[in-house]
């Protein structure tokens, strides 16, 4: 299903627009003066999801369908107006390969292929902290460290980051992978004191991705939490200055419910680590070494 409102303006395409992050960005980005200036006066949104994202702004073009279908994806780009994609659509947690292949792998391939064919300037990608979940919490890692996926889901996010790399350096499409921590109105767990990303900070990070000068960046989608596992200097250099901090909620979660030697407590990926875990603890200890 497609509802067209052709405006002739440059457009930003938001995928996963019926979802939590997509609906926030859809609501907020059109009113941002800095973005209007960046797009030399005005821009429009195209929004897509496998579920109907609802009417939203009057001018939005809405496309309902699966991104696993390349013809459907191409139909959103064919008018040549798409300048930037914010690619959020996907299955957002651990699942069987059958689910992840369509939602996270085929969909991402189709988005980047369309971006190449229709000369899109940049793709912002919703990666995840589960792309690096197998780092111990005792290490503060930046965006240059090799990925360490903690799940099939995390591995699909590694794949998306690497699609961004290939299409940036091979085809000149700017790539901005956001390793999102825990996007919620407020932290709800002890681990969230490290990984929380507030709604305003999500918007701020997307604005950096839409306007900054870069070729291929991996950044952390995290607020200004003093307990963060991540060195987010790459995002800061590009102009990301988070306004919120999980520190304000620290009194609500004074300690984890888990023992220190529980793998979910030891590694950054938290509960994703224990999901299906059968390897020996001795083997996992290798991951603590620098
Ligand atoms: N929310 C978080 O804390 C968090 C953390 C890390 C990464 N992320 C990533 O950010 C993105 C958005 O997260 P969210 O919390 O808004 O998730 P969400 O589940 O609320 O939204 C994802 C949207 O993608 C759509 N979708 C799924 N498969 C699709 C397909 N084949 N074609 C078209 N649309 C499809 C869904 O219908 C859904 O509306 C996801 O890719 C997720 O993996 C989120």
From TrEMBL:
PANTHER family to which the protein is assigned, alphabetical: 4-EPIMERASE, PUTATIVE (AFU_ORTHOLOGUE AFUA_7G00360)-RELATED (PTHR43103:SF5), NUCLEOSIDE-DIPHOSPHATE-SUGAR EPIMERASE (PTHR43103)
Key words of the record: NAD, Oxidoreductase, Plasmid
Protein name, as recorded: NAD-dependent epimerase/dehydratase domain-containing protein
Family: Belongs to the NAD(P)-dependent epimerase/dehydratase family.
Entry-linked InterPro entries: Epimerase_deHydtase (IPR001509), NAD(P)-bd_dom_sf (IPR036291)
Pfam families: Epimerase
Gene Ontology molecular-function annotations: oxidoreductase activity
Residues in NAD-dependent epimerase/dehydratase domain copies: 12-180
């Amino acid at each position: 299903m497609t509802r067209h409102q052709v405006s002739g303006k440059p457009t930003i395409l938001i995928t996963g627009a019926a979802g939590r992050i997509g609906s926030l960005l859809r609501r907020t980005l059109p009113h941002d003066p800095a973005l209007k200036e960046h797009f030399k006066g005005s821009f429009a949104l195209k929004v897509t999801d496998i579920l109907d994202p609802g009417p939203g702004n009057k001018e939005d073009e809405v496309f309902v369908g699966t991104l696993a279908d390349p013809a459907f994806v191409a139909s959103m780009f064919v008018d040549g107006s798409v300048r930037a994609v914010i690619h959020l659509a996907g299955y957002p947690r651990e699942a069987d390969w059958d689910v992840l292949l369509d939602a996270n792998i085929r969909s991402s391939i189709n988005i980047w292929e369309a971006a190449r064919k229709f000369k899109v300037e940049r793709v912002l990608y919703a990666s995840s902290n589960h792309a690096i979940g197998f780092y111990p919490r005792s290490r503060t890692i930046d965006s240059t460290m090799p990925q360490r996926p903690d799940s099939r889901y995390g591995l699909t996010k590694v794949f998306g980051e690497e699609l961004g790399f290939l299409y940036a350096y091979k085809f000149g499409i700017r790539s901005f992978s956001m390793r999102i921590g825990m996007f919620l109105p407020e932290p709800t767990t002890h681990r969230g004191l490290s990984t929380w990303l507030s709604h305003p900070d999500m918007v701020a990070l997307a604005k950096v991705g839409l306007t900054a000068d870069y070729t291929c960046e991996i950044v952390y989608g995290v607020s200004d939490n003093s307990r963060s596992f991540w060195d987010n200097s790459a995002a800061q250099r590009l102009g990301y200055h988070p306004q919120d901090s999980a520190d304000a909620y620290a009194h609500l979660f004074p300690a984890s419910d888990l023992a220190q030697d529980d793998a979910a407590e030891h590694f950054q990926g938290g509960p994703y680590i224990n999901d299906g875990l059968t390897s020996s603890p001795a083997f996992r200890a290798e991951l603590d070494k620098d």
